[in-house]
Amino acid sequence: MKMLVLLLLYGLLGSSLVSAKTYYHNFVIKETKCTRLCATKNILTVNEQFPGPTLYAQRGDTIIVKVFNKANTNITIHWHGVDQPRNPWSDGPEYITQCPIRPGTDFTYNIILSEEEGTLWWHAHSDWDRATVHGAIFIYPKIGSSLPYPKPDKEIPIILGEWWKSDVAEVLAESLLTGGDPNISDAYTINGQPGDLYNCSKKDTFKVMVEYGKTYLLRLINAAINNELFFGIAGHKLRVVGTDGGYLKPFDTDYVMITPGQTMDLLLFPNQPFNSSSKTQYYIATKPYASAVNVLYDTSSATAILQYKNFKPNKLSPSKSPSFPTLPDDNDTNSATDFTSKLKSLASQEHPASVPKEIDERIIITVSMNLLPCNNTTPCLGPQSGRLAASLNNISFQEPGIDVLDAYYNQIPNVYGEEFPQEPPFYYNFTGDNLPRVYLLPKLATEVRVVEYNKSVEVVFQGTSLLASENHPLHLHGFRFYVVGRGFGNFDKDKDPQSYNLVDPPLENTVGVPKNGWAAVRFRASNPGVWFMHCHLDRHASWGMDTVFIVKNGEKPEEQMLPPPKNMPKC
């Protein structure tokens, strides 16, 4: 209903000036019985929905969400891709910007929208609770502004996820106990349903009803815990028009590669003719992009069905089984790279690309898998009888006992250090083969990087081949950044910047660092506060592939962090 009201306002008041609005919602976290793959278990949900409710707003609006925790576990919620200007208090990551919402308590989030426009999402940011606690955020242009692409007749959320028959919390706990890789998921899902290729799933397969000649906006979200995904629709091209709450130069494609954390806005034009030999149903499908070698992953595919309306099968034109889209092979890095290379900002007068041309600071960060020695208290199931870990610049982030934001704001000592390095502690052939074992051992610490207000920052993420090389989706809270360059091999600070795109690079909040390669991003540090940065493959984040940026206050009042709300949860 709220979506309908917003669309009507947009259509009827296109030339009017309407001030920003505030929307209010209640989220009730509770356990709900859910049946998938022939088995029933309890899952965490918001308002007993899986996926959770969609939030609707316009650019510049505010959304107030009161979260009631009626589950038996701690919880926090993150508003993924929302910059939250000057307001890290409502950003959500557990023990970074808040203590968790304890069972039986509540907390109110103040979600401040600024320049975001398009599709974002929200999800739990405590342990792996986001496996079932997640939903979409649709952000429309301000009244008086228009979409930079054909106005769709209908919009459809498509949320990709993963499903375990086991309790997800137990999957994580077992992995952390043994030091081994977590058990892989049992299925992928599209809008919470695995699709008819899995047992006991056919009747609940998600269906998209379309009409020939109309235009549909698919709001695609990768909410999977540990897998990047290919996505496509049989017999239909997709037109990519946006990502991560911003607009792109449109291009048509047969498939999409989307990392966990990312969103894509896709236009669909149903154009298949009707005749006695034509199909009326087409599979919508997703399957993994798994770039690591010798790392187990869920090899299955989830499906939904695209169904043309107003077609009645008869004896001369019997209904045919859906056709499957042609998607790249699971390990096809070339196809993943080819898709990603096509993402370019719209860079129009109304939606300019404000790329920092000069930088004040370059930070080079190695992104690595690591090994810790066995603690001898339990059998260790990681490689070489060790315990799996992960790091940024060889520091495996250790979660503090109280949140970093509270410690920073109230100057509480001995919670974190400020020694996250500007460059790797040692240089070697990062993407080479048979690297010395000494590089596998990380430092365990809670170190942050402090940045002066309004500085122009470049971060180069350098992938490594330690233990297992793969594509890493790195997400920065509090900012969207321009992805100015990518490449394979080791970053060359003298040569590679010469090939940067400083004209129309994509504006993203989650960047895929190529397998055995690097990615360079730029942003202006104009959002004071404490902001988490981490890999969005949750197993890597759980092993320490995280850090924190603290952006200091500016001199003017409007350049300073907002004061904390009175009801912040206590640790």
TrEMBL record:
Keywords: Oxidoreductase. It comes from Dioscorea alata. This is Laccase protein. Its EC number is 1.10.3.2. It comes from the Eukaryota.
